[in-house]
Amino acid sequence: MGKNLKEAMKMLEDSQRRTEEENGKKLLSGDIPGPLQGRYENGCAYFHEEEREGLAKICRLAIHSRYEDFVVDGFNVLYNRKPVLYLSAAARPGLGQYLCNQLGLPFPCLCRVPCNTVFGSQHQMDVAFLEKLIKDDIERGKLPLLLVANAGTAAVGHTDKIGRLKELCEQYGIWLHVEGVNLATLALGYVSSSVLAATKCDSMTLTPGPWLGLPAVPAVTLYKHDDPALTLVSGLTSNKPADKLRALPLWLSLQYLGLDGIVERIKHACQLSQRLQESLKKVNHIKILVEDELSSPVVVFRFFQELPGSDPGLNAIPAPSAAASAVGRERHSCDALNRWLGEQLKQLVPMSGLTVMDLEVEGTCVRFSPLMTAAVLGTRGEDVDQLVACVQSKLPVLTCTLQLREEFKQEVEATAGLLYVDDPNWPGIGVVRYEHANDDKSSLKLDPEGEKIHAGLLKKLNELESDLTFKMGPEYKSMKSCIYIGMASDDIDISELVETIAVTAREIEEDSRLLENMTEVVRKGIQEAQVQLQKANEERLLEEGVLRQIPVVGSVLNWFSPVQASQKGRTFNLTAGSLESTEHTYVYKVQGSGVTPPQTPTGTRTKQRLPGQKPFKRSLRGSDAISETSSVGHIEDLEKMEQSSGGQEASEANSHERHPEAPAPPEAEPPGALQDGAQGLQDDRPQVEEPESLR
């Protein structure tokens, strides 16, 4: 079936060449675009469903080729001279374990080659260090067997220096296998030298299904070997008809697309990645990780912002513990912001096929790989432009949030009753917790009273209708509750925000405490009232005598000598929490005034807002972002509001200094007028009749 595939490709290319010759065009053979045309000659194909299955078969072929007695002696041959498989540190996760499980080899047979740390890309295999590892393994009596190189790593799409690796493998007799998404560019007329060197390798694995958007299409492993017996033993070839039919879906799909369709889809994906890469280079605070590889169909970027006084080289240079902790905290904060950015972009531009991933050195990044997603999702150039526009629209939110974090921390630490919670994984302004009176600061266990206060605080904050988002956490209910404040889309007054949180939480705590105290006071007051009423009944029995309690005799005595009994009862004052007698109410027909309830605590900073201005916004006074006419109008409105509030406060202060019953003295009045005014006041004063007991 592999021969039929090659024949079909040759037929298509020959027909195209004949057409061009008839039109009088002279075309060089190296310029003819086509899948591996003239680039991987004398090769065989193995079709498989699992992408890693082809590499496992290649490893078996390499073992049979290097160990001649393996078929007879089996594991004893490997035990005397252990094989070594070399994998890059940037290889896809789980590849080494899969190979060991399929081949029955122990994990020490794997050798992970680190990437460059000083020179070159941090995702390319360190060739010098690889040569050192090979020499060390040979000295220990091991056999370097196979090297897996990357033409486009699974994470960021970097290509190893395949040309140098091929020279090293030929020197030590190592089988070289190449895999990666950049191998798709071999179908184009222009290929980078690093990817073109992959055609000289011993084997490679291709995945045309994701590249071309074809479902249920097998992967292909191309290899070069002259011994059909070893390929049969390794499982690369088979005499079963069912195994030969694996290539049928791929062959039919390629026949449907044609040569031009295959090249067009791969070229379109590469153009999308180059378009995004060129656009992101013009955007500030966006770093691209694959700038040195223009031909790579993978674009990986992340948001970054250097704070004042920070050194951009701190990530690569070892620092003391204090500096290292600060750098680590800053990196975790940027990772949280990049994770938020990636999720937002995925929701706003779903056709882009973005993925969020975590890299060991760079941290959290956003990856755009149109070669794996564009054919399925139908990504177009307009989607890339929309993606860039969304990135630019989210940058002010990211920069503003990152700048306000330190100010929020300082304000919370300076406010009594609030505790700043350091959670670098939260993509927002910060996390705060209110410490109530009965809060156990040394324990992190669940606090029911604190959870109740924070639930009420969250409800109050969401009712303010501000641009900020508030959330209560953490997700794990075994810890204390906190208030998580989201991203800031504009200049926020952090001092007002923190003060509002503190005052609102204090009000909720006092209200709940007042309710609890009131319940206890009412219960005790009822018990005390029952005792006093029972005592009053006993005193009344002693005053009236025993004879008056007899039914017939008591009625006669009460008819001859009635008892002047006063109405006695009890009233409970909820404000004062005291039990009082009702005698004053029945005698003077007036209820007691009681005690004035305490005022609800309010913030010390009262901010005047313009109509329509949302909470937590900074004042427009002195702002350069508004026009001159609008700024003058806003400033005049603010000054009028401040003057009116100041005049009211001054009038209230003057009224409190005067005696409440003494009228204000007029400036100049004749004596007669004063007397007439006094008589008028006496006439207008209501006449209150005093009780007989007070006369």
TrEMBL record:
* Alphabetized InterPro entries for the sequence: GrpII_AminoAcid_Decarb (IPR050477), PDXDC1-like_2nd (IPR055103), PDXDC1-like_3rd (IPR055102), PyrdxlP-dep_de-COase (IPR002129), PyrdxlP-dep_Trfase (IPR015424), PyrdxlP-dep_Trfase_major (IPR015421)
Keyword Lyase: yes or no? yes
| Gene Ontology MF terms | carboxy-lyase activity; pyridoxal phosphate binding
Q: Where is the composition biased (Polar residues)?
A: 593-605, 643-653
Pfam families tied to this protein? PDXDC1-like_cen (PF22930), PDXDC1-like_cen2 (PF22937), Pyridoxal_deC (PF00282)
Q: Where is this region: Disordered?
A: 591-695
Q: Where is the PDXDC1/PDXD2 second domain?
A: 296-402
Biased amino acid composition, Basic and acidic residues: 682-695
What's the superkingdom here? Answer: Eukaryota
Give the GO terms filed under biological process for this record: carboxylic acid metabolic process
Alphabetically list the UniProt keywords: Decarboxylase, Lyase, Pyridoxal phosphate
What PANTHER family has UniProt attached to this entry? PTHR42735, PYRIDOXAL-DEPENDENT DECARBOXYLASE DOMAIN-CONTAINING PROTEIN 1-RELATED
| Protein name per UniProt | Pyridoxal-dependent decarboxylase domain-containing protein 1
Native organism? Bos indicus x Bos taurus
Q: Which gene encodes it?
A: PDXDC1
